[in-house]
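It is worth pausing here to work through a concrete case rather than discussing structure prediction in the abstract. The textbook approach is simple: state the sequence, then state the predicted structure, then interpret. We follow exactly that order.
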Amino acid sequence: MAEQEVKVQSINKAVRILEIMAGKKCPMALGELAEQSGFPKSTLHGLVSSLRERGLVEQSPLDGKYSLGLHLFELGCAVTETWDVTSIAKPYLQNIAQRIGETAFIAVRDRDDTLILDQVEANNPLRVAVSSGTRMPLHATSQGKLFLAYHEEPLLRHAVKNGLSAFTPHTLTTEEALRTECAHVREQGVAVEDGEYRIGLRAVSAPVFEASGEMTYALGVVGMFRRVQSDEFQNAVQLVTEAAACISRALGYHQS
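Step two, the predicted structure:
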């Protein structure tokens, strides 16, 4: 096996270890890591040792269990500092959350999911909690349907091929229904989620464009709105649409 291929495989295995630990959300013993990863303990020990040397993994001196290292946090902070969109979007998220009384967010597409970059929760005891870093499906969320609509081919074909899981009875689970919805989203300029991911939750998202003209982010609000036809929801649609347009202009986008 070529040396380069061996290095690539080692990197993939190391990333897999970090993903397992992140999903566990608590310290793990080497045996647990071996069981979940399927890697031999000898291989695993070497990988974990290398990660620990780089500060990506820490080992407790009390019980020997492993957890994610602080260097990952430092790297994460360095990444977010390069995303000017979060600082630009923050005041708009705060305004929407305050005026609507529900959770406002900005999301990006990451492979087959949407990823929440930032969010602001309203001072509402019944608000919907959405954490930064949360992944959600493309076909069942307002922000996901935006990405499908504005990047329809081949993203939509890929989503259909992977299977359109039914999260609720309202989830769009056929290619025909999803294509029809995407056409409607492009026509309206916003995407609405009506109990498709979680029963009782409704959301609206509007596209955020970069200077290149590419729809890169989705700005939205999610909450326990009574119905999408209600005045409060239509007010949310207007605020989200206006805010997304402002953020797009701040990113250098000029509509022709």
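Step three, interpretation. Strands lie at 57-59, 66-68, 103-110, 113-120, 135-137, 191-194, 202-209, 215-223. The mean pLDDT is 88.
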